[in-house]
Predict the structure.
Amino acid sequence: MPITLRPARWKLSLAAGAAAALAVGVAVAVPHIATASGDGTATPPAIVPKPVSIAAATGQFTLDKHTRIIARGGAGDIAADLAADLGPATGLQLPVAASGNPKDTDINLVLGDPGTLAGDRFAEGYQLDVSASGVTLTARTEHGLFNGVQTLLQLLPAPVASPVAVPVAWTVPYVHVTDYPRYGYRGVMLDIARHYEPPSAVEKLIDQAAAYKVNVFHLHLSDDQGFRVAIDGFPNLTAIGGQGSVGTGGNTMDPGGFWTQDQYREVVAYAAAHFMTLVPEVDTPGHNNAIIMSEYGDTANPLLNGDPRDVNCSTKNPPVWNYTGAVGYSALCPESANTWTILSSIIGQLAAMSPGPYYDLGGDEVPATVLSQERYAALVNQEAGIVNGHGKTAMGWADISGAGTQLAPGSVAQYWQTASGSSSGTVSGTQAVAKGMKVVMSPANHAYLDQKYARGVPSSLGLTWACNRGCDVDQFYNWDPGNYVTGVTDDSVIGVEGALWSETLVTFDNVDYMAFPRLPALAELGWSPADTRTATSPAYQDFLARLAAQGARWQYAGMNFFPSPKVVWPVTVAPADPASGPQQPVDATLATVSAPGVPAGALSATVDWGDGTSSAGTVTGTAATASAVNGLYAVGGAHAYGHPGTYQVTITVTGPTGPAQPVEVTLHPGN
Ligand code: TNX
């Protein structure tokens, strides 16, 4: 059973102005946020990642105070999660029941075999049917139900992501979805070593990634600049190794930090509740200055042999802190017994706290001038044996497939090189396959979320080494993990991962700005069936249209993201509760507007007051910066009615691509 944590997803705070506009209580009008085209044909809803099969029909289910969630076959925990997910935005506390006479107003969650999931190799699939008989979600596993719930949430209007109630009609278009993943490993990596992030930040990213059916969270816990989790018996690792970051020594914005083991376990549980496996990584034998600086002088440690200076095989002896982003200078010595005492404790303790199948030993970027290939391979082989001894599969950057390494078949190499096809730079991939290893694909020019989007964009964040002209969503979407390196096919590839290296990412807002909208592109490559994905292919155009619909969700959730110019982000409007009372003249916030990348000044609002008069509304909100998307906007309007009464007010907002679907609110002005 998953551990149920509520509220699970989308619990971020709104931009202040929008929160004020939304936090005013019950709905006064329930206009629909329309998605269907006007010609009677149903437009397939915008689901990311794209389902294996989706058939839209005309009509819609409406979620309201009559809706019950019926959990059958043991679906109770997921049903409770769904009720909790829907609570804040809808203001509804939907009852969860284990049985009841079926009603067409019910959402049914069934743990059972729908008979449509023959292609589901990973027991993560689901069948979702929305029709005149209600909503029925069926899956063979709780993970499948969880995935189906993510789809159902995307079928609801974007304000469902809001942490406060929004007065819209909660409609779900009629649809039949059969869905299951292409790969079993769909990951995101966060580097909390270069810049520390607390457990709460990682939990936010878990929320955000789980919404796109990402199921692996790879945690890069140690690097030259910091060691981030307490290890019993080695207090220096955090007391010394946990105190810096990239930039320390001249940049007071960048304090370090570390997690206690209880905090680590809490994040493991949080991930599990979102059907995500946590993969711990302590990078070795390179990227290790923080461990070396911590233990080099740890002469009083009874676990070490009195003089642990022999762990240091770095280019500097004695070692010195280097808080730049430099790489390739530090290494642990494979011949040192102290190296193994330290690594065995780290591996043993992290393995014991991590229920998932993998332990990642890193293994990247150790130049032969620092450790010969022979010494490097000796270390990797011995360490992989320790990992296996703790019942874990060894994983590492694809460098671990190099000459002299021999890892148990099924060990995982993460391919990060930019090289493709059969060029010589692909050797780590082909070597991994030759050695019977599995491969996770993260070619840096398609999957490194720390790379800039475009030349100089964003100006303040991101590296360029893999993307010197930038890597926007097109670059993240238009490639095939199973056909990138010749000979590295789906026989070996187990999945795909986006890597958020954090040399330049100081805050969690920075992390989000780089992860979104590119992480959903990778999530789709990991989940959806193989397709022809190129700059001119229909699949890419279709993806962009579905991605565009996510922007409003992120804005209602209060997330930061890059409003990529590759995407035509729609302007969408939702009614606010103007809290109308007898006051006259009316002066109220009437609607909220999502318009990613559009300045408030480029939007105009018209308010039809329902009494035969119209006037302009005011559009206000938080402007974008070089590393933050603009906030949701609020539309305000003021009007003096001639008579008390009940008036239907229509708000139309026009953006650069034309008018958005108008919304209505009802006012009851008195005199
Ligand atoms: C390369 S690729 C690294 C990281 C850096 C990253 C920055 C690899 C396995 N290592 O140490 O943070 O580039 O993009």
The chain has 16 helices and 24 strands. The chain has three domains: 26-179, 185-557, 572-667. Residues 337-353 form the longest helix (17 residues).
